[in-house]
Amino acid sequence: MAKASAIANANIALVKYWGKRNKELMLPQTGSISMTTEGLNAHTTVEFDPKYREDILILNGKEYGKGDEEYDDYVGLFLKVVREKYPEKAKDLKVKIVSNNNFPTAAGLASSAAGFAALAAAVNEALKLGLREKELSMLARRGSGSATRSIHAGFVEWHRGENEDGSDCYAEQLFPPEHWPEFRLVIAVTTKKDKKVKSRAGMSQSVANSPYYKAWRDDVIPKHIETIRKALGEKDFKALGEAAETNALMMHAVAIATTPPVIYWNAGTMDIVHAVMDWRDQGLECYFTIDGGPQVKVLCLEKDSKEIAKRIRGFPNIEDIIITRPGQGVKITKEHLF
Known about the structure:
- This protein is of the alpha+beta class.
- The protein has 2 domains: about 1-175, Ribosomal Protein S5, domain 2 (2-Layer Sandwich); about 185-325, 2-Layer Sandwich (Alpha-Beta Plaits), CATH 3.30.70.890.
- About 40% of the residues lie in helices and about 25% in strands.
- The protein has 10 helices and 14 strands.
- The strands form 3 sheets. Strands 1, 4, 5, 6, 7, 8, 9 and 14 form an 8-stranded mixed sheet that branches.
- Helix 7 runs antiparallel to helix 8 (about 235-255).
């Protein structure tokens, strides 16, 4: 019997990841930068044991298996990678996986990033693979691209890499959480429902036919990575906020211009987008970012976070509000889910 559990936090991209150049190896078209959150986590327990005749996946209390998208297109493919890379450890063993998120799943809050970072770490521990952070980041990437960033704490950069085998495509920490402890994200949850177009499908469509994709990939991202990396180092909130907000708008412009269009925003999204711009004009220092979903993350400093949350509560299309700060990377826990 080989059992282990891990907890990983979601990350929110400041420079977005949108599009792969290799779907099998999960190699991105561009690099990206994110903040690992505090408190938005996936808790995952795995057990490899001869007693299991088939892989068992239980996600948020619901069981999935072969024939289900959650297994066939996600966890099953990840396990195939593990068994091919480490046949002496895992080839002949089936596994039971139980994972719970403490925040909405498949709703634009990076649940797959947290989930696969936790799964990679738990598999590493259970099978005694001995992977260090860089290797673990690369393994997590094979489940979900953005999971490569959730291995690390604080502010993280995912390197695109140049090698077609993915050997130089990994994430590393730029700055630890304590570098900028006053930094906050106030998340306006506009719906807890699953999004109609999953990020993986939306990215694929955008790469294939959005007329803006080439400019996004070649011109926008390199500039924003440089700007935000510098702004983080100097703790220049204005420069970071402006670049992150523009980056998000440009990513969604790419998605909206896709055929058929990929539109994640809803009425609540638009309410907060307009409100943030108005608040900023009134002197309240804040900016927004939006990933592949309808949720709005308002970038601010600790001194303004409660006021922003209070204002967001006044809108009718908001289901929840979460305030988060730079958080920790993946960790092993002795608290098992079964």
